[in-house]
Structures are given as C-alpha cells and as structure tokens.
Design goal:
Structural class of chain A: mainly alpha
Number of helices of chain A: 15
Strand content of chain B: 25-35%
CATH architecture of chain A: Orthogonal Bundle
Oligomer: heterodimer
Strand order of the largest sheet of chain A: 1-4
Helix content of chain B: 25-40%
Radius of gyration of chain B: 17 Å
CATH topology of chain B: Rossmann fold
Structural class of chain B: alpha/beta
Largest interface: A-B, 25 and 29 residues
Number of strands of chain A: 4
Number of domains of chain B: 1
Order of helices and strands of chain A: HHHHHHEEEHHHHHEHHHH
Largest sheet of chain A: 2 strands, antiparallel
Largest sheet of chain B: 6 strands, mixed
Number of helices of chain B: 9
Strand content of chain A: under 5%
Order of helices and strands of chain B: EEEHEEHEHHHEHEHEEHH
Mean pLDDT of chain A: 89
Distance between the termini of chain B: 36 Å
Helix content of chain A: over 70%
Distance between the termini of chain A: 26 Å
Number of strands of chain B: 10
Radius of gyration of chain A: 20 Å
Low-confidence stretches of chain B: none
Shape of chain A: globular
CATH superfamily of chain B: P-loop containing nucleotide triphosphate hydrolases
Mean pLDDT of chain B: 88
C-alpha cells in the first residue's frame, strides 16, 4: 500500500452514533445551497465551471472511496470514466438503441468489466495494484488511439444523441444552468449512498480488511469479494461521472482514458482528503476553481497546482476535508468527532 | 470427542527451503486444559501455532479438533469449527472502535457474546474509542477479545503478555485462568514469561530445535535437567 493509501478513516469522524446530526445538518444545508446556485444569477461561465467541478468531484469521490475503504490508490480510474463515455459514443454510433438505454447501459457495462478486471487487480495490493491499474487503463487508451476505424483515434467522436432523452430536450443536458442541477444531484446522491455504505456492517468489514486482511480472514471472513464490491462500486461511480461528461459535452476524446486523468483524480482526492467520503468532492471544487483562476494568469497552471499540492500535504495531512472536520468538531464541542 | 481430547496434533512438520522448523511434533490437549508451549527463540513455537491454524503452505501432519480432522481446512474454516488464535504481534483493526471490531468478530460466530467479552476483559469504558487511540496493554486485550468472541473450543495464544508490565501480565494470566474454568476453554499458550506460564498452565510442552523435548506438569518440567539446560536455566529450577 502506498503511503497515501492507508488513512485512518475515523479519527476525524464521528464515532458510531455520535455527532451524526451536526454532519447531517451541514450536509443537507450544502446540498440545498448547491441546488439554489443556478437561481441566484451566477454568470454562465461560472456555472459551467461548477458543472465541470461536479463531474470531477464524482470521479474524485470514486477514487477517494477506494482509498478510504480498501486502501488502494488507483491510477486507472480513467478507464472506467472514459470507458463509460466511449461506451455511450460507440453505442450511439453503432447501434439504434434508445438514448435512455445507452445512458443507463454504459455505466453498467463498465461495472461488469470492472468486476472482471478487479478479480485480477485485487490479487495485488499497494504499489503493485497502482501499477496494474495504470497498465489496464493505458491498454484501453492505446486501443482507442490505435483502432481508428472503431473510435476515430485521437480525433475522438462526436456523440449524436437523440433530440430528447428521458423526456427532456438534449439542450437540458448541455447547458450549464440546467446540467449543473443534474450533476449536483448525482453527486449528492452518490455521497449519501457512500456514507451509508461506509457506516454499514459491510463498510466496517472492508475497513477491517484494509487494516488487517489476515486477521479478518481468521475471523471467518472472505476477504476478496468485499474488496471486489468496493472496487466495482468505485468503478460505477467513476462511470457515472463519465456518463455525465458525455451527456454534457457530446464529445469524447482519448484524453478521457489517459492515466493523467486518473492521476489528477488521485491528486484531487489527496487535496480534499480521504478520511471522509465527501472530502474528495471538496477537493475537486477547490482544484477546478484553482486551475481556472491560475489559468487566467499563466499557461503553466500545473506549477501552481503542484505548489498547492505540496502545501496541502505539508500543512494539512488529512486534506482540506480533515481541516474542515477538525474545525467542525471544535465548533461542535466534540473532541473525537 | 475421541478419548476426551479437544486437540490432537500428530506428526506436525514444516520445512522451509531445506530448513526444518518443526519436526514430527505430536501432543494432545484435554478439554478445559491450559497447555503451555515453551522453548527458546527458534524452537518452533510460533510455527507450531501456524500449522495448527492452517497458516502458511505445505504443512505435514494431522490436526484433530474435538475428534474431527481439520488438517485440510483453511484458516477461515478452522475458525468456524471453533479454533481461534491471537498473534505474536498485536493484530487488531486500528481504524475501528473496540466495540465495532469485537462485534465484527462475533458476526461469524455461533454465539454473539461480544458485550460479555468486552465486559470480561474490562474494555467497557473504552469500547467506543478507536483501537489506535488506546494504550498498548489495552490493545493486547482487544487482540485477546477478538480471539475470545464466540467462546471458541480451542484458543491458541501467541505470547499474549509480550510487552506488558509484570502486573498486567499476571492480571491477564488470572483472567485467562478464570475464563478457562468458567467457559471450559481449552487453551494453548506460547509465552516467554515463566511467571505467567507457571501461574496458569496445567501442563507444559517444551520444544527445542523444532522437536518435543519433553512434556509434563509444570513442576516436573521445571525440575527436568534437560529443560533447565536447554531453556530455563538454573534460576527457575
């Protein structure tokens, strides 16, 4: 397991049954405020930025959840994210399936592949897992790049959706002021579900397996399948992000499959922190906005992002989410929140 | 249960790349017995525990639990049959609270006595704290709690008093003796602390260079010249 992949997941979180109300209240408030954003007169380019940030947040949440629950740092989640986007593009191009079926089938298809792949990847841990996941994603990237007849290589594919999807005009999904509501809703639901999973008996078991697989096995548990389920769930969420990207942009390119996108998602998760389910999403909004602001001043915005990453790792070892949790605990008067 | 034995081990052998760590070791434990497994470093004690629990590859020999041959079963399956163990190094779940992990251990046991175990091991006051946040002595008790949940038929303890103060060690020894009598636990104990061994064990098996040197009640082992020469030294005679 690499050094970033084994965070203590409860130290900055509520012990079971304690302090949930405060976090629930804050979560609900943030969710409601998010839904209000398109109606308060924000500029369209800012809403577009927030829509992109929401999609990045979904991908980062998937990557962070895998770190949190399984201690695995994936450098291959672009395969699930870009894979879902390409699955939509190819299904639209080569089949006559209704757009609704395509949009629902693409992430499920990717999860099916994810389960198969995970049975191979999860024979390993730590660096070996990271490298294998990277190799898997790069193989998919190369396939799309080289098989030009299938996916048009580096030029990518325009997705010719039907005019209506789920009874809504296509423009609903391709305008920032309306699409933001969709991406924000998906993000909120994803985080809510993952919080429930992480606090369930199954979530407890997966953390036990992450901490001490042999002891978990000796307590009578199978240790492979819970990890497969966590990876599949993480893959599904990444695929949902890719699906939203495809809907919003109507265009896919091989960069969606490149390992740098996986690395970016991991960086975002580190900036946000992986001790809490929601923290990578916070990291995504900070990252995307920072990237946009820095991009206004220099074409070398990566340098600024790099400096921020160094600063966060050095000063906030549990990420922005960890700092927010510590602040909330102090504000709420609890020591071990 | 054949002949009243809870555990029968016959011809246990383990070799590593030409080195024989355990050579044809046999012993049997009666129900409710506390057996000490002692010997110098490298004698094969932990290897013996590993073979009994199905840890590692290519063991030779037969292990019967309550008369049933469990030699071919996995660690997980042996646990389900009632064989439980603790490890030489503290083996707990640092990111879970004590209560969470004891409950987790209980979920696969026929009997959920997690709260009873927490109470018996005096963990109630810290049960909702993360295991990583409690003292080493408390972590050793958490380790023991994970092994005790479900009232196993046979409990293998690998140096449960390692790193504890004299007072903590003797307290743990008394607690083990007490639980063994009340729960009719059969216990096999690897321990270097002879105060603990002589305080609670009914019988001792002495290993030396991977083989059984002798076996008997604590007094006869304490006075055995071969054991004194190979392991105990004159101070314990």
């Amino acid at each position: 397991m690499s050094s970033i992949s084994s965070p203590s997941v409860r130290g900055a979180q509520a012990a079971p049954g304690q302090g949930i109300g405060l976090y629930l209240a804050i979560g609900c408030l943030v969710a409601v405020l998010g839904f209000a954003l398109p109606f308060v007169g924000l500029p369209k380019n800012l809403l577009a930025l927030l829509t992109s940030a929401s999609i990045s947040a979904i991908l980062a949440t998937a990557v962070g959840f895998l770190v949190r629950q399984a201690g695995l740092s994936s450098f291959g989640h672009a395969a699930f994210y870009g894979g879902a986007a390409y699955a939509i593009a190819l299904l639209v191009k080569y089949t006559s399936l209704p757009a609704e079926v395509v949009v629902l089938a693409a992430p499920l298809l990717i999860v099916g592949l994810g389960v198969v792949v995970s049975l191979i990847l999860l024979r390993t841990n730590g660096i070996a897992f990271s490298m294998l996941s990277l190799a898997m994603a790069q193989a998919v990237y190369e396939l799309v790049m080289k098989w030009r007849d299938l996916a048009n290589g580096e030029d990518g594919l325009r997705i010719r959706f039907a005019r209506e999807i789920f009874g809504l005009k296509l423009s609903f999904f391709q305008k920032a002021d309306t699409m933001f509501l969709v991406t924000w809703a998906v993000l909120v639901v994803v985080i809510a579900i993952l919080v429930l999973v992480s606090r369930s008996n199954f979530g407890t078991l997966t953390i036990a397996i992450k901490n001490n697989e042999e002891r978990a096995r000796f307590l009578g548990y199978r240790t492979l399948w819970p990890r497969v389920v966590i990876l599949a769930l993480s893959a599904l969420i990444a695929a949902l992000g890719g699906t939203l990207f495809a809907l919003y942009n109507g265009y896919v390119t091989p960069s969606l499959l490149h390992w740098t996108l996986s690395g970016e998602a991991l960086i975002i998760a580190i900036i946000g922190g992986t001790r809490s389910v929601w923290a990578p999403a916070v990291g995504a909004f900070v990252f995307v906005i920072l990237r946009d602001v820095a991009g206004n001043y220099t074409t070398h915005w990566q340098s600024i992002v790099g400096l921020v990453l160094i600063a966060v790792v050095l000063t906030l070892p549990n990420g922005i989410g960890g700092a927010l949790t510590a602040f909330t605990n102090r504000f709420g008067g609890r020591q071990n929140g | 249960m054949a002949d009243g034995y809870m555990l029968e081990a016959r011809g246990l052998t383990r070799r590593y790349a030409g080195f024989t760590a355990l050579n044809n070791v046999s012993f049997a434990l009666r129900e409710g017995e506390i057996r000490g497994l002692i010997g110098s470093n490298g004698a094969g004690k932990s290897t013996c525990m590993d073979v009994l629990t199905g840890r590692g590859k290519n063991p030779i020999g037969t292990v019967r639990l309550g008369g049933e041959d469990i030699s071919k079963l996995s660690q997980r399956e042996r646990r389900a049959k009632g064989l439980s163990r603790s490890f030489q190094k503290t083996s707990i779940f640092p990111d879970l609270t004590i209560r969470e992990q004891v409950r987790l251990a209980a979920r696969n046991a026929e009997l959920d006595n997690s709260e009873e175990v927490i109470s018996e091991l005096a963990l109630s006051s810290i049960a909702d704290r993360l295991a990583s946040d409690v003292s080493y002595g408390d972590q050793r008790r958490v380790d023991l709690a994970l092994a005790l949940v479900g009232r196993p038929k046979l409990l293998l303890l690998d140096e449960p008093a390692a790193g504890l103060t004299v007072e903590e060690s003797l307290s743990m020894a008394r607690m083990l003796r007490d639980l063994s009598e009340r729960w009719k636990l059969t216990v096999m104990l690897v321990e270097h602390d002879m105060e603990v061994i002589f305080a609670i064990c009914d019988r001792l098996t002495v290993l030396h260079l991977g083989e059984v040197l002798t076996e008997g009640d604590p007094e006869s082992v304490r006075s055995n010249p071969e054991v004194i020469r190979a392991y105990l030294g004159s101070s314990f005679a």
